[in-house]
Design brief:
This protein has a three-stranded mixed sheet. 75% of the residues lie in helices and 3% in strands. The chain is built from 13 helices and three strands; from the N terminus they run H-E-H-H-H-E-H-H-H-H-E-H-H-H-H-H. By secondary structure, the protein is mostly helical. Helix 2 runs antiparallel to helix 3 and helix 5 packs antiparallel against helix 8. It is globular and about 65 Å long.
């Protein structure tokens, strides 16, 4: 009887309203300018890394191959939410259709899952290079690196299929205002819960999010713990400094990304402070991809040299 009732009221909502950043028109123009400049710089920064790796033969190594693919992922990631956020600043209705909302949810979370996996295999690469240097050339071959990249993309887009399918079955019976700039999981679960309690879906989504986040985070943390132990045993100061320089940029990105992600998705729909989820989402989905090119280039002499050479050629 209850399932029949849920089916009857489900999908009454045909569109959602994304509030974005409601404020005075002058402030909206200012925010649009900031986010637009950030978006363009993010695209240019990540494209520059891809081009530098492509054209500089010194960077034709597994570490930079993974970094170039990671930069491409970041470009895809910001394009899953930022263009719609920018368009919403000039929209009178600020609406998004039910289908487009779920499509954005799927791509946004799939790309986020792919990013977690990419950060893990980049940590694995550094672990092999520093802790198993003799095995590194034979293990991290071009073919194996390509297989790891394909695995990240395929698994990333498969992992979140179940939660998205579950969300499509939820009863959206009336409330359709999302206090966010994208179709995020937490607000959608909250809207559905206003119609019918959905503890099962909340539990499954929370479990899958937590499993992915904590499994990859602890794997990265464990890898770098082993790396740190080996680095501390290096006799020369110069050797330790060089080893740290290859890992520090990646660690900064990991902590920026996972710090904000854990605040948002470990327990989706749990009722965070009003507006808090919006800003944590903004941080890891917009600002982290913006900072990544600067972090990787400023901390890496080879990358700085390649970027300088590429810019001079242009």
């Amino acid at each position: 009887m209850m399932m029949s009732k849920v089916r009857n009221i489900s999908h009454v909502v045909s569109e959602f309203i994304l509030l974005g950043f409601p404020c005075r028109w002058e402030i909206e123009i200012f925010l649009f300018s900031i986010f637009f400049i950030t978006y363009i710089l993010t695209l240019l920064g990540n494209m520059a890394i891809m081009c530098a790796v492509r054209w500089d033969r010194r960077l034709h190594t597994p570490m930079y191959f993974l970094l170039a693919n990671f930069s491409f992922l970041e470009i895809c990631y910001v394009n899953s939410d930022v263009p719609n956020m920018l368009a919403n600043f000039f929209s009178q209705t600020k609406t998004i259709s039910f289908a487009r909302c779920l499509l954005q949810l799927y791509f946004f979370f799939s790309l986020g899952t792919t990013e977690c996996l990419f950060l893990s295999i980049m940590a694995y690469d550094r672990f092999l290079a520093i802790c198993r240097p003799l095995h590194y050339p034979t293990v991290m071959t071009t073919k194996f690196c390509s297989s790891l990249v394909i695995f990240c993309w395929v698994y990333g887009f498969l992992w979140f299929l179940i939660p998205v399918v579950l969300v499509t079955q939820l009863p959206f019976c009336g409330p359709n205002v999302i206090d966010d700039f994208l179709c995020d999981l937490g607000p959608l679960l909250a809207l559905a819960s206003a119609c019918v309690p959905v503890p099962g879906t909340v539990l499954i989504c929370g479990t899958m999010s937590s499993l992915l986040i904590f499994a990859t985070f602890f794997y990265i943390a464990g890898s770098y713990t082993l790396v740190l132990r080996v680095v501390m045993q290096v006799p020369s100061v110069a050797g330790r400094k060089k080893a740290f320089s290859t890992c520090s940029s990646h660690l900064v990105v990991v902590f920026l990304f996972y710090g904000s992600v854990m605040m948002t998705y470990v327990s989706p729909g749990s009722g965070q402070a009003e507006g808090m989820q919006k800003f944590t989402t903004l941080f890891y989905s917009v600002l982290t991809p913006f900072f990544n090119p600067m972090i990787y280039s400023l901390q890496n002499k080879e990358m700085k040299g390649a970027l300088k050479k590429y810019i001079e050629i242009q």
